[in-house]
Fold:
Amino acid sequence: MTHNAIGQFIATDLLSQPNRIIAEDDDLLTGGLVDSMGIMALVFFLEQRFNVQIAPGDVTIENFGTLRAIEHYLASLTP
Amino acid sequence: MLYLLHGAIERVAERAPERDAVRFAGSALTYGELALRVGRLAYVLKDRGVARGDRVGILAGKGLHSAVAMHGIMKAGAAYVPLDPMAPLDRLVMIAKDCDIRHLVSEPARSTTVRAMIDAGVTLDTVVGFEEPAGAPGPGVSWEEVNSAPGMGDVAGATELDLAYILYTSGSTGVPKGVVHTHRSALAFAEVAADTYGLCAEDRVTNHAPLHFDLSTLDYFATAVAGGTTIVVSEAHTRIPASLAQLLSDERVSVLYAVPLALTQLVLNGALERRDLSPLRWVLFGGEPFPPKHLKSLMRALPQARFSNVYGPTEVNGVTHWDVPPVEALSDEPLPIGRPFANVELMVVDEHGDRVLPGTPGELWARTPTMMQGYWNRPDLDALAFAEKPGIGPRQSVFHRTGDLVLSDADGVLQFLGRKDRQIKTRGYRVELDEVESVLLAHPAVEAGAVYGVPDTMGSTIIEAAVVLAPGAPVSVPDLMAHAAKLLPRYALPEHLSIVDGLPRTSTDKVDRTALRAQAISRRNRAMADRT
Structure:
């Protein structure tokens, strides 16, 4: 499951709280789980991990607001 | 005559009640609606026992309610105290107890935090924004109740010297300190800023910074003085540059004020070429140095806009400003902080407080009506922050000692050189490295430690730490980070923390932080070389 890997990255690498569970619909941006530096690290992680290119214009609140939105966005990238 | 901050709202509400005062996520409050809500909130707060000079907290994400809360609290005669919604619980409790907050404006999303604050000993008589179950007594007052209040509250006899707000900032001993501003000091800055940047009723000015950050006072108060519209930028939009760019375009923003890091990310990742930002006429930045390379990219992306650096510690609001020359004339040297605002007198002094000649580095002292009243309940800090000196006139004047080291050129243009103490700016936030150090040293397993700033590639500073543990202590880096995260806001946490066997020492046996910083820089350079 893609969102587990992403949630794990946020919990471990961004929050230093490896045991924290992030739910699929948790608000990543308003709740403070991901800050402005965190979003850059997250995009870099996604590009490496899923071997995709993410255009800056695609990094929007709609595509990155929740784990579910990120998963949906990544699926739209893979033909 | 305007002498109270909320008077600015009321003045526009009388003349142009239909004009938008604040906008957020597609909805708006006109000046008429805002003045009404402000009056009703003041009524409810007074009814709940808020008295002149009290402190009322704001613990909520940004929205239309932000303006209602700030002005409503002040109209009730109290000072508003913006609490960082991202700050750890212990820090919120420390601040609430320090300035005796007994009333709060909040929102349902913060109910866990508010309940935890009460459990930690904070007495709250009122929490505006919370529903109480029918018939159950409690501190909660819903916004519906506020908006149907039977009258408008006001405080009799309020003067320009009444408290307006307290902004808490990092304190070197591990306890945050509250910078107290009056209506006079805040209004003096709002008016000089509105004047300097020609703000008018047609302007649409962003509020990018959080309320506990002093940039927000220009966004709300200078805009209200000019009768313009504040465009509130949500927390999510501040984190996502492409969405921020879309908001700037959708809302036809004319003045943008943000920290350099946010503007750098906007030009690097905002896909600005897709947006029509032609109404944007002035970009203001402050909080820390803007790397010229990124500023130039932003200037090329927004050729119609003017750019200005606004400088001033929270204690004095803005005291100098520098208008950036056209991009072709801009060098790669660090940007100056410029010349004083029209209402400010500055001097550059040596360690004895005597003026130095232009071209000689010294500490910047400022005498200005925008100066704070002092630190909340900290006469010890006040004694260090203020100095009485002969000013330009015949009498002694009180100057604020900024602690910033500057250099004036022959034309009086100032260059920022650094700090006298160990305060740094990281992502626009100011942090006392000694505060971070004292938090780490408070962990029972830590025997010694050093916290130091390392320059990053974005022109900002990141915080690093090295600690020595007691022999055999079963403590890991994540344990120490979790301990620090309980007391410090996220931006003040060390980016890297290493457990070491010993710290480098100078010949006088002090911890050699310069050596630690040099090691960190060469470690980073090696890592970057490996990557390429």
